[in-house]
């Protein structure tokens, strides 16, 4: 999951990260449930987590919070330096 979400940082692979987050939301109880708990309309969440979606930071943080995940920040070269 972590590597899929790291794809959100790469415009060429962003769809993979959005679809991974969508899969997590579906597993949590469905996009409707996650949207309701996050205070977002279901339609907006479907659009945000589509392959061409562009979620706001607010939406991303709300969804991550609902499904029990959190966003963290690391120096730009950290992932490749550890790999």
Number of strands: 0
| Oligomeric status | single chain
Question: Which sheet architecture does the biggest sheet show?
Answer: none
User: N-to-C terminal Cα separation, in Å?
Assistant: 16 Å
The best one-word shape is: globular
How confident overall, as mean pLDDT?
88
Low-confidence stretches: none
Which tags fit this structure?
83 residues, mainly alpha, single chain, globular
3D architecture notes:
The protein is mostly helical and 83 residues long. The protein is built from 6 helices and no strands. The protein has helices at 2-6, 14-28, 31-38, 42-48, 57-66, 78-82. Helix 3 (31-38) crosses helix 4 (42-48). The longest helix has 15 residues, at 14-28. The protein starts with a helix and ends with a helix. The mean pLDDT is 88.
Set down the secondary structure blueprint.
Elements: H1 2-6, H2 14-28, H3 31-38, H4 42-48, H5 57-66, H6 78-82
Helix pairs in contact: 3-4, 3-5
Short synopsis of the structure:
α3 crosses α5 (57-66).
